[in-house]
């Protein structure tokens, strides 16, 4: 059997809640220690100087309470649903792999563009989770602001267009738009590589 396709035994252990808890613990620790913040954030100069763990740990670091609150809210809403279908072990693998790959991609981009600002936040992994939600539940309706119904694949498309537009126009410069797009891209790759599923066909289900 292809090791990439080897399945875990299904269990649903609310691993999403543990991930959220880990994020909040690290948030409070890094707010109390600026040194820890920069050691765990993705800072290209530090990463290449030996802090090789940063493309992994950056996704557990956040810049402020609003930042972590909305990221964790998104993870709670979409993560539990995806985890329930994938199973907890598969979901944990998916979350960590896509988030880390988004971090590695961002490290390359930051290096090429000579960006020295630290990259923090779970957004890359959470965008991957949102994409997974749309693939798993393509007919699901998501209510924007609680009133506007939008199908999950349409929401993913809308976010993609918005992120590309913001990146091209240089809007909201403190947001790593390419990291968000990388989350979508690596999530799209995960399904065929790991599960042999064509995510595009799933997204086009009517």
Largest sheet: 2 strands, antiparallel
SSE pattern: HHHHHHHEEHHH
Report the mean per-residue pLDDT as an integer. 90
Q: How is the largest sheet built, in terms of strand order?
A: 1-2
Kindly provide the radius of gyration, computed on alpha-carbon positions and rounded to a whole number of angstroms: 17 Å
The geometry reads as globular
Distance between the termini: 33 Å
Number of helices: 10
Helix content: 55-70%
By secondary-structure content and strand pairing, the structural class works out as: mainly alpha
Q: Which key features would you list for this structure?
A:
single chain; 206 residues; mainly alpha; two-stranded antiparallel sheet; 66% helix; globular
Describe the structure.
This protein is mainly alpha-helical. It has helices at residues 15-32, 34-40, 44-47, 54-57, 65-86, 88-112, 123-136, 152-169, 177-195, 199-203, and strands at residues 141-144, 148-151. A two-stranded antiparallel sheet has the order 1-2. A hairpin with a 3-residue loop joins strand 1 and strand 2 (148-151). The two termini are 33 Å apart.
Please specify the SSE layout and strand pairing.
Elements: H1 15-32, H2 34-40, H3 44-47, H4 54-57, H5 65-86, H6 88-112, H7 123-136, E1 141-144, E2 148-151, H8 152-169, H9 177-195, H10 199-203
Helix pairs in contact: 1-2, 1-5, 5-6, 5-7, 6-7, 6-9, 7-8, 7-9, 8-9
Give a nutshell description of this structure:
Helix content is 66%, strand content 4%. It contains 10 helices and 2 strands, in the order H-H-H-H-H-H-H-E-E-H-H-H.
